[in-house]
Amino acid sequence: MSHYWTSDLADRPSFFGRIDPRLRFFLFLSALGVISAAGGRLLFGATLFLIGVMLFSVAASAKFRRSVLRALLALLPFGAFVVFLMSLSRETGGPSPLLRGLCSLILIALFVTMMGFDELREVLRSLRVPSIFITLLGFVYRYFFLFREELEKMDMALKNRSFSSSRLEGWRLRALLIGQVLLRSYRRSEEVYRAMTARGYDRKER
Amino acid sequence: MHIPDGFLDPKLVALSDVAAIGLIGLAARKVERKLSPERIPLMGMLGALVFAAQLLTFPVVGGTSAHLVGAVLLAVLLGPFSGFLLMAAVLLLEALLFQHGGILAFGANLLNMGFIGAFGGYFLYRAGGSTPLSAGLSALLTVVISAVLCALELSISGVVSIKTALPAMALAHLITGAIEGIVTFSLLSFLVREAPEITGGERI
């Protein structure tokens, strides 16, 4: 099971690790605010930051390199569509939004390496984010990897066994596959609730 | 359709973030007060399943593919407030783990996909007679409406012109919407037949 939450720098004794998670979170949001509204010289600075991170990633761990690459690729579908729309119209915002988008995605990838998931939940708790939302965030994160693995295995089995199904039938079969995992998750949720109450769960996120 | 940071006008970002935070607070209060505690793990698991199912691609034409959004599905199974809250959790994790969409643009993305999908989709589902077919049709419509909203936000921000963005986004998302509709319809028909206890459960 591979985890996407890298938290490389947060796990190691480092300068970033010593900064209070709340301060790290606010610094991240402030930097993101500056980058996502940047223009002119500031945008040039943001581009230098982007190049710097990419150069650093070459020397950093493979995990970090992968997360930087994923962040760059994440802009591809939306960016390509926006470029296509820009090519159709005369009045457009130019390349600045794409550059700002790239820089901010890299910044998010960096943030994830500097902040563990539990630390983030702690920060959200201190910001008085509703407890139910933090609980759900934890559930979704925890079980996502499990369901992804189950769905991938079932999808592979489906591809191996359905030889000449039409596209429409393929979509329907995939929907049924999700339905099967949904049935399992329904049954599993009852067991999880029993386990939670046995450990003293009282609707509060601790 | 996940808008990254840097594309939208800062004022629009601030406005959508405030609206999204307010709606999350409202939905959280409603769910916390009314939902039975044994439904909470189910909510979390369905959210995780929809998140994982979003990675499953549905081939369209010429190497292109679409994926499930799942907001209407969640709203039909759990109710609009629960569905909206789960979509907020899914979109936030998606932005952090896969960089699909921005963090500051989270509000706009949540309003486009979560609010329209969960509240709009649930309303259309009920108006259409609360059947798997009405859920499928509302899934199709909400995907197109979300795309139209996304095009409007981009044009208000001066990134693209409204004349080209609106028809292009709506047309491109008609195909995605059709897949969303077929998947939602097939899935709910299957659940109504095989596990009516899931589709007939508590909805907040």
Succession of helices and strands of chain B? HHEEHHHHHH
Contiguous helical run count of chain A: 10
End-to-end separation of chain B in angstroms reads: 27 Å
Number of helical segments of chain B?
8
For the largest sheet of chain B, list the strands in their spatial order.
1-2
Radius of gyration of chain B: 16 Å
Largest interface: A-B, 83 and 77 residues
**How many β-strand stretches of chain A?**
0
Q: Which consecutive residue ranges of chain A, at least 5 long each, have pLDDT under 50?
A: none
Work out the helicity level of chain A: over 70%
Percentage beta strand of chain A: under 5%
Average pLDDT of chain A, to the nearest integer? Answer: 77
Mean of all residue-level pLDDT scores of chain B: 87
Order of helices and strands of chain A: HHHHHHHHHH
> Total strand count of chain B, please?
2
Describe the structure.
The complex is a heterodimer of chains A (206) and B (204). Chain A has two domains: 8-125, no CATH class; 130-198, no CATH class. Chain A has ten helices and no strands. Chain A has helices spanning 8-11, 15-18, 21-36, 40-59, 62-74, 76-88, 96-114, 117-126, 131-161, 167-198. The model of chain A has no long low-confidence stretch (mean pLDDT 77). In chain B, a hairpin with a 5-residue loop joins strand 1 (57-59) and strand 2. The mean pLDDT of chain B is 87. Chain B is mostly helical and 204 residues long. The chains are: A mainly alpha (206), B mainly alpha (204).
Short key terms for the protein model shown above:
heterodimer; A: 206 residues; mainly alpha; 0% strand; B: 204 residues; Arp2/3 complex 21 kDa subunit ARPC3; two-stranded antiparallel ribbon
Layout of secondary structure:
The complex is a heterodimer of chains A (206) and B (204).
Chain A lengths: L7 H4 L3 H4 L2 H16 L3 H20 L2 H13 L1 H13 L7 H19 L2 H10 L4 H31 L5 H32 L8
Chain B lengths: L9 H25 L4 H15 L3 E3 L5 E3 L3 H8 L1 H19 L7 H22 L4 H25 L5 H33 L1 H4 L5
Antiparallel strand pairs in B: 1-2
